[in-house]
Amino acid sequence: MRKHVLIVIAIIVLIGIAVVAWLAWPDTARLSVDQVAGKQPTIQAPREQVIPTVDIAKPVGWANGAKPSVAPGLAIQPFATGLDHPRWLYELPNGDVLVAETNSPPRPSTGIVDRVMNFFLGRAGAAVPSANRITLLRDTNGDGKADLKTPFLTGLNSPFGMVLFDGQLYIADTDALVRVPYTQGATKITATPEKVVPLRGGGNHWARNVIASGDGQTLYVSVGSASNIADNGLDAEKNRAAILQVWPKDKNWRIYAAGLRNPTGMALNPVNGQLWTVVNERDMLGSDLAPDYLTQVEFGDHFGWPWYYWGGYPDNRVQPDNPPLQQYVKRPDYALGPHVAALGLTFATGTKLGDRFANGAFIGEHGSWNRKPPSGYKVVFVPFGPGPFPTPKAKPIDVVSGFLNAKGEAQGRPVGVIVDKSGGLLVADDVGNVVWKVSAAK
Predict the structure, then answer these.
(1) pTM (2 decimals)?
(2) CB atoms within 10 A of CB 43
(3) Of 406, 397, 437, 442, nearest in space to 419 by CA
(4) Which domain does 240 fall in, by range?
(5) Of 87, 227, 297, 348, which residue is most buried, by most CB within 10 angstroms?
(6) CA distance 51 to 237
(7) Which residue ranges does UniProt annotate as crossing the membrane (predicted)?
(8) Buried (b) or exposed (e) across 110-129, using 16+ Cβ within 10 A?
(9) Residue 220: in which H helix or E strand, if any?
């Protein structure tokens, strides 16, 4: 009898192991990234996962003078090195460059999901304390390298976006939009930041961005979702997964657009002045879904999160469902591919990188952690025209690549991208701890 019981237990254990192995088996992409990119991406049926595909590139940094690759006709060199997790960039009117050295605030491990997420962050090189600092970089002799690197503003709370507005520097901390007085040419600010509006912090998406509106009256602030698909309920997502419009003088705000899982990079289109953003879409629908995207955003838009993706495809995992919303969901303008982690965004205005890169948008793709094979880990260019939208049949063009080495390890990961006063492209690399400068080859 005891022998039979042991046999039954062994069978149950084997079945359990098999089930866990089946659930955890990584989902391999069946489409190329380009097939899920462009104006009309291929949208396959979802392959829902209980446990996500995990393919995290081990962070190793740049060894022995190694550097990224660039498109033909371009050159790249370090603009600044020795930084501490540089993620976002902003150029001041005198050409000084501010870099937010920052990371996620501490994440409590209250359950298995939190512990798994913290483990993944550690594997990706992201589970390090935030420097909570904005550093000033200045190239005084015009050689394309910063010869002044100095702490500009400290004591912040996971700062990210920065913008100069009406004589004050606004900083998007993870839990508040704050501001300090700014004097042109200053190399340090000691003033205590003043809170303008609170922002909801915590959760998976901690980075907040801020830019000024075209009319110079308001600010746009992006706030990502707390979870993948409102896993902890919709109340936890209130005033999140959205772009807010803020009136700084009155310290008032409203939701400008919603249903945006993690809108990070924002920029104004130079052709029509409209707001554009790049968005990280949802996980655990397989390696081919859902595409991250680049899109124009107008007041009142809703892009579907968490109930719908890519303009109306339902995510049946989300309960309760929301059928009335489907007909109002806006389809994004341009897909960037699945899981590329699009974060940085800047239009090509002012660049001197040749005609090929004169009209369009540069996008920093931080790189996937949950796709096999990996996607992203590059800076791409989306051509625009004619008019204020991406070229109808164009696919993203690689501008800066080679962040993954031959072993699949991460030498770097690009985040923020801006155009500097010389017409070059600056790229924040938060694994390599470098700001790279891309310029036309001589």
Answers:
(1) 0.93
(2) 17
(3) 437
(4) 1-440
(5) 87
(6) 22
(7) 5-25
(8) eeeeeeeebebbeebbbbee
(9) strand 219-223
Residue type, 67: K
Dump pLDDT digits (tens) for 82-126: 999 999 999 999 999 999 999 999 876 555 545 555 565 565 566
Contact 417, 344 (CB under 8 A): yes
**Token pair of 49 as six digits:** 């996962």
* Residue 237 CA: distances (Å) to CA of 26, 54, 212, 439: 29, 25, 25, 41
Query: Across the chain, how many H-helices and E-strands are there?
Result: 2, 28
SS3 call for 383: strand
Inter-residue contact 276 to 296 (CB < 8 Å)? yes
Alpha carbon distance 45, 189 (integer Å): 52
Nearest to 414, CA basis, from 399, 426, 427, 425: 427
CA distance 2 to 177: 66
Q: Which of 321, 322, 270, 267 is nearest to 295 (CA)?
A: 267
Considering just the CA atoms, what is the radius of gyration of the chain in Å? 22
For the record, the structure tokens of 232 come out as 């902890």
Q: What is the CATH number of the domain that holds 120?
A: 2.120.10.30
Pair 292, 280: CB distance under 8 Å: yes
| Overall number of domains in the chain | 1
Alpha-carbon distance of 228 to 198, in angstroms, equals: 23
How far apart CA 177 and CA 158 sit, in angstroms, is 11
Q: What one-character DSSP code corresponds to residue 319?
A: S
- Dihedral angle sign, alpha carbons of residues 47, 294, 162, 57: positive
Would you give the distance in Å from CA 25 to the centre of its chain? 27
For residues 116 and 51, what is the distance between their CA atoms, to the nearest angstrom?
11
CA–CA distance, 171 with 180 (Å, rounded to integer): 8
Query: How far, CA to CA in Å, does 319 sit from each of 219, 229, 282, 307, 323?
Result: 33, 10, 15, 8, 11
Asked whether the bond before 386 is cis by omega within 30 degrees of 0, the reply is yes
Rounded-to-integer distance, Cα 219 and Cα 200, Å: 17
Q: pLDDT by residue (tens digit) across 328-380?
A: 999 999 999 999 999 999 999 999 999 999 999 999 999 999 999 999 999 99
CB 343 within 8 A of CB 427: no
Closest Cα partner for 83 from 162, 149, 171, 157?
Answer: 149
Q: Which amino acid is at 426?
A: L
* Calpha distance 134→151 (Å, rounded): 6
- The answer to whether the beta carbons of residues 102 and 88 sit under 8 Å apart is yes
Q: pLDDT tens for residues 275-329?
A: 999 999 999 999 999 999 999 999 999 999 999 999 999 999 999 999 999 999 9
